[in-house]
Design goal:
single chain; 220 residues; alpha+beta; 8-stranded mixed sheet; 7 helices; 8 strands; 40% helix; 15% strand
Length: 220
């Protein structure tokens, strides 16, 4: 990914997410993988007011070269890139937010995954979203748990593009910032639909999901 474009895209996506309420205050972070390292939003930065020149720039070994101090979730991003690119080699952007409806679902026991197959676009555009047990923000244990889950799903033939950090928020990844944002939007919208139901919603059937696999290559 071109570094200048990546800087602009991170700031554009950050402002869009902030303006629409997907993040608030200084919650959330975004990174972009470069051929020779990574860009990541600074720690405690507001995604609505990012400065392209102040994004943290790291080399291929993770050493910070310039910009403000990197997000405390740097280890999480690094581990996701390492594991996800085994199954999706073009992965080049990660977004973490504290999106309201996703977080709300983790305030009760939701089981191993955040949501069942509720809508066709959730199945097609997001896929499985494993829930990671609560760890403090930036904890290395969370990064390790996510890496293990990414590897486990990928090795069983259903690579994932999102995990849910319990009581914190979703982390999604894709080939570029626009695609990662679209994945996050679909995830949060499905979570919103789930929270609006007075009773647990009925998921799509196995036949419905198989049709989505055949027609659209859904990974479920």
């Amino acid at each position: 990914m071109n570094e200048s474009k990546a800087r602009e895209d991170i700031c554009r996506v950050g402002k869009s997410l902030f303006d629409r309420g997907y993040v608030h205050a200084t919650a959330g972070n975004i990174s972009a993988r470069l051929d020779d390292g990574m860009l990541i939003t600074p720690t405690d930065a507001c995604l609505g007011f990012l400065d392209p020149a102040r994004l943290a720039r790291l080399d291929a070994q993770g050493l910070q070269l310039s910009g403000d101090r990197a997000s405390k979730t740097l280890a999480l991003h690094t581990r996701i890139y390492a594991q996800s690119r085994r199954f999706d080699p073009h992965t080049a952007c990660i977004i973490h937010t504290h999106s309201t409806h996703c977080v709300a679902l983790t305030l009760q026991d939701m089981g191993a995954e955040l949501l069942p197959a509720l809508t066709p676009y959730f199945v097609m555009k997001v896929g499985h979203v494993p829930v990671i047990a609560y760890h403090r923000p930036g904890a290395p244990e969370a990064a390790e748990a996510v890496a293990q889950v990414v590897a486990r799903y990928g090795e069983r033939g259903t690579p994932i593009r999102a995990v849910m950090l319990s009581r914190l928020g979703p982390t999604v990844w894709h080939d570029d910032p626009a695609a990662a944002m679209a994945t996050l939007e679909e995830l949060e919208e499905t979570a919103r639909l789930a929270t609006l139901q007075p009773h647990p919603a009925t998921p799509l059937t196995a036949d419905h999901i198989e049709a989505l696999r055949q027609a659209f290559g859904a990974r479920w």
